[in-house]
Amino acid sequence: MTGALPTQGDPLLLGRVWRPGVGPAVVTVRDGDVVDITNREFPTVRDVTEAAHPGVVVAGAQGEAFIDIDDLLANADEAKRDQDAPYPISPIDLQAVKASGVTFVTSLLERVIEEQARGEPARAAALRTEINDVIGTDLSKLEPGSDEAMELKRVLQERGVWSQYLEVGIGPDAEIFSKAQPMSTVGQGAFVGIHPISKWNNPEPEVVLVVRSDGTIVGATLGNDVNLRDVEGRSALLLGKAKDNNASASLGPFIRLYDDGFGAADVASAEVSLTVEGTDGFRLDGASSMSEISRSPEKLVAATVGKHHQYPDGLVLYCGTMFAPIKDRDGPGEGFTHHEGDIVSIGTPTLGTLVNRVVHSTKAPPWTFGARALMNNLASRGLL
């Protein structure tokens, strides 16, 4: 998986690797080597990211260089993986996994279309034209919760096209939801799961913030917020079924920690690319620009963690995507949906490229290694 690492700057990377016969290792990358920096003071990624200065911890940590980074990434693809050799896993462990939705205008309109189509992809094309004609304004210029936004809400309600997605897109409150359980995310090269009941679904390429328990953003990574459009389109109350399934949340390849060479400004200007390559020869390309987000990453974090809600082990926050694929795949007017075997690549120069292969969630390896298993493993290694 060439190109997995960041190509801009001198990145300070933090991640996790499964070491056969050992278990999960906290790692960094130095001079082409993967270095195991797991120790009693920082036995988990959660402990590193909760430090006052995570970058200082990682930069100064001693450890064992146990595999070349190219060899590690060559063993990432779960379809071909040698289970007896080290391979990358999700770069987080005990953190809560949260996500924000409807943070870009393009995806906002697609959520409205999903709702109006009631989960039927064939109705989407006509509805897309109708809704754009009715709205007739550039929502990207609206400040969510502003007087102008509330006036647009009033007008749309009068015309009978108001939606719960418009409410969180331009209203005062951001949509924040739980994407997955701690320890359930998958990493570079892993299978990502689509629930087999779904006939209309898509990847969501996103920047993911790594947030300390006090609300400080300490780094960022890439994520795929796998989504079932037909399920969510039937009812927003089915969001959990649409979003949280086996292997439905991927992260990686590594966390890039904030330091003098990388920070909030780089996240705010990130251009995130998406490529889907199918075994049927289908190819889809897209992009999502963080500069077009309607609520800043800092505002999204403030809506997630604070006096109103605490996360003692920290959290990661998917920031949402502006990319909602509409390219027809299986027939005219039916739009895009995944096929098993699709290769999804999500990348940006500052964070690298996250690559996963799509399968049904029932065919992805079951999630069995949870918090208790991690604690038992660390205790057996003398790390607790």
Characterize the structure shown:
This protein has 384 residues and is α+β, with helices and mostly antiparallel strands. It has helices at residues 45-49, 54-60, 69-74, 105-117, 124-135, 147-158, 164-170, 229-234, 239-243, 264-268, 297-304, 371-380; strands spanning 13-19, 23-30, 33-36, 64-68, 87-89, 96-101, 175-180, 191-194, 201-202, 205-211, 217-225, 227-228, 249-257, 271-277, 283-289, 315-318, 343-348, 352-360. Strands 1, 2, 3, 4, 5, 6, 7, 10, 11, 13 and 16 form an 11-stranded mixed β-sheet that branches. The protein has a 5-stranded mixed β-sheet with strand order 8-18-17-14-15, with no helix packed on it. 49% of the residues are buried.
Backbone CA Rg: 21 Å
Strand content: 25-35%
End-to-end distance: 34 Å
Which sheet architecture does the biggest sheet show? 11 strands, mixed
Shape: globular
Number of helices: 12
The helix content, as a percent range, equals 25-40%
Count every beta strand, where a strand is a DSSP E run of 2 or more residues: 18
Order of helices and strands: EEEHHEHEEHHHHEEEEEEHHEHEEHEEEH
The oligomeric state of the chains shown is single chain
Which stretches are poorly predicted, pLDDT < 50 over at least 5 residues?
none
Mean pLDDT: 92
| Class from secondary-structure proportions | alpha+beta
Short characterization:
This protein is an alpha+beta fold. Helices cover 25% and strands 27% of the residues.
Give structural attributes.
384 residues, 5-stranded mixed sheet, globular, alpha+beta
Draw up the topology in text.
Layout: E1 13-19, E2 23-30, E3 33-36, H1 45-49, H2 54-60, E4 64-68, H3 69-74, E5 87-89, E6 96-101, H4 105-117, H5 124-135, H6 147-158, H7 164-170, E7 175-180, E8 191-194, E9 201-202, E10 205-211, E11 217-225, E12 227-228, H8 229-234, H9 239-243, E13 249-257, H10 264-268, E14 271-277, E15 283-289, H11 297-304, E16 315-318, E17 343-348, E18 352-360, H12 371-380
Parallel strand pairs: 6-16, 8-18
Antiparallel strand pairs: 1-2, 1-5, 1-13, 2-3, 3-4, 6-7, 9-12, 10-11, 10-16, 11-13, 14-15, 14-17, 17-18
